[in-house]
Amino acid sequence: MSTLNPVTPRPGDVVELETRDGLAYVQYCLEYPMMASLVRVLDGIFSQRPTDLGALVEASDRFVAFFPFFPLRAAVRRGLMAVVAHHDVPESLRTLPLFKSGGYRDPEGRVASWFLWDGGESVHVGKALTDEQQSLPDREIVNDTLLIERILEGWKPSDSYRPMP
After folding, report:
1. Residue 164: its pLDDT value, please?
2. Per-residue pLDDT tens for 86-124?
3. Is pTM, for the whole model, over 0.85?
């Protein structure tokens, strides 16, 4: 996948990513003007494209809910990824969910202060998050390299929870 692609992804599109371990899939959920494309990472890495991508879309997500923001349109246009199917976006992902974000980080990457963001307003929640809040997606923009790295590592949103002692 390395040629320019005139296809512009639209919500519901299933996009194929090549990784060193096989093919992975994300579903484009929505575009948020201040960030980028909201995608959910679908479960599994495959040696070849599954024949029933609809079943993959209906199954649970790989990272608990989905992967936050990613510049998807640019990646498809640049040929880094390809649109391979279209299926309805789950109702729960047709609007922005709640995100967590860290404020000040020390040199080890631990966070001193956490915030929750709903797409418009940030609310300070302090030094610690509840178990449920730890599993919220992170408010961040990632590139294709980091997205693939996290897929291969089995990353989940709670992995980024590193509070200061």
Report:
1. 77
2. 999 988 888 888 999 998 888 988 899 999 999 889 999
3. no
- Sheet with strand 37-41: strands edge to edge: 69-70, 37-41, 22-31, 13-19, 81-86
Two structure tokens written together for 157:
């949103």
Tokens, residue 40:
């959910």
For residue 55, the one-letter residue type is: A
Contacts 24+ apart (CB under 8 A), 112-115: 112/164, 114/163
Residue keyed to tokens 């996290």? 150
Tokens of 142: 């990632």
Q: Whose CA is closest to 100, among 87, 127, 88, 118?
A: 118
Question: How far is 99 from 48, CA to CA, in rounded Å?
Answer: 33
